[in-house]
Amino acid sequence: MDAEISSRIPLGAYTLPGRVSDPRAAVAQAVAAETLGLRTLWLSERWGTKDLGVIAGALSQVTATIRIASGITHFQSRHPALLASLAMTAQALSNGRFVLGIGRSVDAMWAAAGLPRSTNASIVDHADIFRRLCRGEKVRYDGPAGRYPSLRLNDVPDQPVPPLVFAAIGPKGLQLAGRHFDGVLLHPFLTPSAVAQSVAIVRDAERSAGRPAGSVRVYATVVAACDLPAEEELAVVGARAVTYYQIPGFGERLAAANGWDPEPLERLRSHSLLAGIRGAADSVLTREQLVEVASVLPVQWTAQAAAIGSPRACHEAFERYRDAGADELVLHGSTPDRLGPLFPTVKAGPGHK
Known about the structure:
The protein has helices spanning 25-36, 52-60, 80-94, 107-113, 120-134, 171-180, 192-208, 230-245, 250-258, 263-269, 287-294, 300-303, 311-323, and strands at 11-15, 40-43, 67-70, 98-102, 139-143, 146-151, 164-168, 183-186, 217-226, 307-309, 328-332.
């Protein structure tokens, strides 16, 4: 590869980003990701067509080296024993390549689903329960994470406990990751400056908890649209931007982290196409409609917090995130089979364009 446009930071990517009606595309995308030499393949779980356990099992059988990660699932969406069972089965099938990414989400989602909301105390205790079950221990617990009189996995494969990665935006979440998790997954549309501030919080919490320096791996998520026609570039970046910024709370956190005036969020959410939408916009609107909504956002909200343009421009953006302290990047928006221009010397394989 041309050294001038090669990346000095490990790269991962999402499979099946956004709205998906047929999950079978993940198989070819996983093969493409491994062909490109990506380090980690992430799945943003959604109920319906993106079940973590099923897809992780499938991907483990068509790949040999790439890590398979949830980005993200949630502790309370499965019973602790079922989540630990899923994780250790995935570890056995993949020979130890599974990574469990966990998030908090918003309280309204859990109220609608009839499940308890996440608290810092419940997250920490859930993480401890998960690790103990994965080690084959018997767990008796009554506390913020629930009441479990007697839990144990019947059989545990000879594999390590999967790394736990916590998705965080604000200082409290970043501190939680630094103290209790093996990694932190930073949200899309953070500028390199915001990533640097996030890394500082994680490292400070890591240090205050007496953990070895660098023990928490920082994954920075970067929406990437490389070497695409202008209309397709706008669709990739704009569609993802609307999906995140339209969610009350999420949009404000991102604007605050980047030091931006949140006023454009009101204009975005008042757009006629978003009227009546309570969940993710990309589960309802077409890509063309999402692009129309995205047009009300300031250009800097995507230009400064994404990797777009030529392969060289994208790699230069990756370097800015590396310099900000990220250990690995998670490319979002473009599926692995669309990332070929970033790796000009890699020959196309099955499922890779």
